[in-house]
Amino acid sequence: MSTLPPPALKTAIILLFKSAPPFVLYSEQPEALYEELKGVIRSVNMASPKLIEKQGHGPIKKVTFLDTELLGVSLQMGVVPQFPMTQA
Question: What is the mean pLDDT of each run of 10 residues along the chain (88 residues)?
Fold first, then answer.
């Protein structure tokens, strides 16, 4: 029999793209990642797209995208998905 642990709140980064639904990326340093991604948005050059890769600490382990596709970023609290704990 498995049970779910209680949900944990964690600061999350919400990435907003032009041609894809938004998704959540959990980071060890969300405030720093938020500031970094704001800088990416500010410095985008449509004539010279850059490939961005970021690590996640949740269901999404890595994400790669073009800086020209990122429309916005949000820093907010979210519930980290929980997976069943198995009993030995």
Answer: 66 87 88 94 96 90 94 84 57
Which stretches of the chain are assigned E, i.e. beta strand?
2-3, 8-17, 23-26, 51-55, 62-66, 70-80, 85-86
Contact 25, 54 (CB under 8 A): yes
**Residue 55 identity (one-letter amino acid):** Q
- 31, containing H or E segment: helix 30-42
CB-based contact 27:80 (threshold 8 Å): no
Task: Compute the distance between CA of residue 51 and CA of residue 59 in angstroms, rounded to an integer.
Answer: 21
Around Cβ 80, how many Cβ atoms within 10 Å? 14
Q: Where are the domains of the chain?
A: 8-80
pTM confidence score? 0.75
